[in-house]
Specification:
- It is built from twelve helices and ten strands.
- With 322 residues, the protein is an alpha+beta fold.
- Strand 2 and strand 3 form a beta hairpin.
- It is globular, with a radius of gyration of 22 Å.
- The mean pLDDT is 84.
Length: 322
């Protein structure tokens, strides 16, 4: 069990602590993969040898340090690979690390539905269930040739291996600085879609201003809606072109929100994240003959200069993205 999957239980308005929490993991290993908005994978193979402790013992130390330094608890799953660590996380709870060894992997997986396996979407699950392969145990027992006929050579082989506990994934180190996020928490569980949209507008305006301040553009926008029952829904959208233009970010956020089809949902907080950041100077922009768009961009530049001189409150939130 050398891979940890950690989910920090960040309260509303506390997502800014994620970089520090990732730094805490990096005290044990440089191989840390951020899983925004509140998680990470950590490869502890070298750390186990260096500290003379198992991954489960190191997980306990990480939990204590996260509580002591940031007041944040976490749930942790441990496994021989990223896939099994992610699945172990689902059975973990605060204070208790759920650990799966390689020898336990097949038994752990066998009774679970095929949809529980990371990477198995709804369409693949329907195809497998139509042939009676509704659990990972049945998939593991099925002939490889059968799975390859149903799903294709590569997908069938990968599914057969995963169902048999073979986890060939690896932790890919990345940086949380590759993304920017902002959160809008409501004073009370909010039912009003108009207030949801105003929060999205304000968040998009802030993200755009922050991107322009560091001369970055983003390729993907991710929306997370947190509900009163502590559940959450996350959606991502790839933009037609990399941008830091607040109205473009707002349009993407509105599109994802509308696609959720929320009806009388009690929303506790909305998180908007810009991902896939790159230098603004390397970005290309589709030329437009729309004078309104050009005027908005010029106003945006003036507003950015006002913020730089007088502070972030110099411009009303959402004024540019409207």
């Amino acid at each position: 069990m050398t891979i940890l999957c950690v989910r920090f239980q960040l309260p509303p308005m506390y997502e800014a602590a994620l970089p520090g929490l990732l730094g805490l993991l990096e005290e044990f290993t440089p191989v840390v993969e951020a899983l925004p908005p509140d998680g990470a994978l950590a490869d502890l193979r070298g750390a186990e040898r260096y500290f003379g402790r198992s991954a489960v013992e190191l997980a306990a130390v990480i939990r204590v340090r996260a509580l002591a330094r940031y007041g944040v608890d976490c749930v942790i799953g441990a496994g021989p690979g990223p896939m099994l660590a992610r699945m172990a996380l689902r059975d973990a709870r605060p204070g208790v690390t759920c650990a799966i060894s390689q020898a336990q992997a097949v038994d752990f997986l066998s009774g679970r539905p095929v949809s529980a396996l990371p990477g198995v979407g709804a369409a693949t699950a329907r195809t497998l269930c139509a042939y009676g392969l509704d659990t990972l145990g049945r998939v593991a027992a099925a002939p490889l040739s059968t799975l390859q006929r149903l799903l294709g050579a590569k997908a069938g082989r990968e599914l057969h291996e995963k169902a048999n506990g073979v986890d060939r994934g690896r932790v890919v180190p990345n940086a949380v600085s590759r993304s920017l996020a902002t959160e809008r928490a409501f004073d009370r569980d909010e039912l009003d879609p108009a207030r949801h949209r105003r929060a999205l507008l304000s968040a998009a305006d802030e993200i755009g201003a922050r991107l322009r301040a560091v001369e970055k553009v983003c390729r993907t926008v991710t929306l997370t809606v947190r509900y009163a029952d502590r559940s959450a829904t996350t959606r991502s959208r790839t933009l037609p072109e990399s941008t830091a233009h607040s109205p473009a970010l707002a349009r993407a956020a509105y599109g994802m929100y509308e696609a959720l089809g929320l009806q009388r949902a009690r929303v506790r907080a909305i998180v908007l994240r810009a991902e896939g950041l790159g230098p603004a100077e390397a970005a290309s922009r589709q030329l437009t003959f729309d004078p309104v768009d050009d005027r908005v961009r010029r106003i945006e530049e003036v507003a950015d200069r006002a913020r730089a001189r007088f502070g972030p409150r110099a411009v009303m939130p959402g004024a540019l993205a409207a």
